[in-house]
Amino acid sequence: MQIGQVADRTGLSLRTIRFYEENGLVIPPARSEGGFRLYSDDEVARLETIKRMKPLGFSLEEMQQALTLLADLESGTGDRAQLIDRLQMFHAAAIARVAALREHLAVAEGFAETLVRHLDAGRGEDVAGGPTRRTRPTEGR
């Protein structure tokens, strides 16, 4: 699959995909005769994993570690118990970061609600959202 198809499938930009390749997170296995990058389903899956880790603030190094853990678990390479222990640490970090994002989202939603109340008050609506003064448009005037 060429890079444009991968971008369409993952929602990542071409530049982002190249950045991850330059930083060793994704290495396309081959190039076409014309020199185009060719990605397998495994690389696309890695990009999807990276895409899910990015909003949680994982560094490139942490992403690489997690991707290696996942690949080792899948291939059966290494001490399975140790791999699972390390993966559990990533899981705990992800859960903590999700909780922090939820807190930030709640604060942001509260701010948005405050803005709506001010906008409503500026339009002459009461706090409950109903109009404080109704005017009817007249037809034909």
UniProtKB/TrEMBL annotation:
List, alphabetically, the InterPro entries matched. Answer: DNA-bd_dom_put_sf (IPR009061), MerR-type_HTH_dom (IPR000551), MerR_fam (IPR047057)
Q: What SMART domains does the record point to?
A: HTH_MERR
The answer to keyword Flavoprotein applying to this record is: no
Residue stretches making up the HTH merR-type domain: 1-69
Q: What keywords are assigned to this protein?
A: DNA-binding
Q: Which GO terms describe its molecular function?
A: DNA binding; DNA-binding transcription factor activity
- Record CDD domains: HTH_MerR-like
**Domain of life per record:** Bacteria
Q: Which PANTHER family match?
A: HTH MERR-TYPE DOMAIN-CONTAINING PROTEIN (PTHR30204:SF93), REDOX-CYCLING DRUG-SENSING TRANSCRIPTIONAL ACTIVATOR SOXR (PTHR30204)
Q: What is this protein called?
A: DNA-binding transcriptional regulator, MerR family
